[in-house]
Amino acid sequence: MANSEPPDELDRVLGGVGPRLNALRRERGITLAGLSAATGISVSTLSRLESGRRKANLELLLPLARAYQVALDDLVAATPTNDPRVHARPITRHGMTMIPLSTRAGGLHAYKWVIRPSGIPKTPDPRVHDGYEWLYVLSGRLRLVLGEHDLTMGSGEAAEFDTRVPHWFSNAGSDPVEVLALFGPQGERMHVRARPKNRTADTSATG
Questions:
Q1: What is the 3-state secondary structure (H, E, C) of the chain?
Q2: Are 48 and 54 in contact (CB under 8 A)?
Q3: Is residue 197 a contact partner of residue 116, using CB atoms and an 8 Å limit?
Q4: What residues are paired with 96 via a beta bridge?
Q5: Which of 72, 99, 107, 109 is spaced 20 to 30 A from 191 at the CA atom?
Q6: What is the average pLDDT score of the chain?
Q7: Do 91 and 58 touch, CB atoms closer than 8 A?
Q8: Angstrom distances, CA of residue 27 to CA of 22, 24, 64
Q9: Which of 72-76, 94-98, 127-131, 166-170 is least confident?
Q10: What are the tens digits of pLDDT across the range 90-143?
């Protein structure tokens, strides 16, 4: 009996599940250990599922959908075929919208965040998890609490940090803040290969 979807299409759909699960868990502020306790799925299996090293199946997705209180279709959302653009399904919770910008399984994941002024509560609640993150403020003002530091970032400013350092963020202004975020779940960092050839003493100074 023929499958309802071609093998390549099925693999592509299942390959996009990991990034969505990772984004959803991070947006909810849930640790792998906490999710494991809620679903009965081992931490190692959850980690491999999010990184794309474990293929999704109904046995895994059903308890995850129940734990997140979302429809199964929200975890398995196919991008239309023959269209190279990323068709991301935004996730909105507590005044913050997270838009996945990449669908690759494993490696760096890209997101756009939009946080409304009345979104995330103003009382810091720092969390930790495995990974490495890079943030760039597109517009608005972002408050970032990172370890002992309490920073306010404006448009054009960037930050990068190990997510094992306690961190928390919220809107620090009266307008929505838009942020481009890159996240490496296994601690991956960006590698800059291209740099200006000629730099004066003034432009090369970092502080």
A1: CCCCCCHHHHHHHHHCHHHHHHHHHHHHCCCHHHHHHHHCCCHHHHHHHHHCCCCCCHHHHHHHHHHHCCCHHHHCCCCCCCCCCCCCCCEEECCEEEEECCCCCCCCEEEEEEECCCCCCCCCCCECCCCEEEEEEEECCEEEEECCEEEEECCCCEEEEECCCCEEEEECCCCCEEEEEEEECCCCCCCCCCCCCCCCHHHHCCC
A2: yes
A3: no
A4: 93, 115
A5: 99
A6: 77
A7: no
A8: 9, 5, 15
A9: 72-76
A10: 777 767 888 887 766 566 788 888 898 877 777 888 988 888 899 999 999 999
Instruction: For the chain, report the end-to-end CA distance as a whole number of angstroms.
Output: 66
Could you tell me the pTM of the whole model?
0.54
As a whole-number percent, the residues of the chain with pLDDT over 90 amount to: 26
Strand partners, 99: 112
User: Comparing C-alpha atoms, which of 157, 167, 165, 160 is closest to residue 184?
Assistant: 160
Show the tokens assigned to 92. Answer: 């909105």
Q: Which of 72-81, 137-146, 170-179 has the lowest mean pLDDT?
A: 72-81
Residue type, 148: E
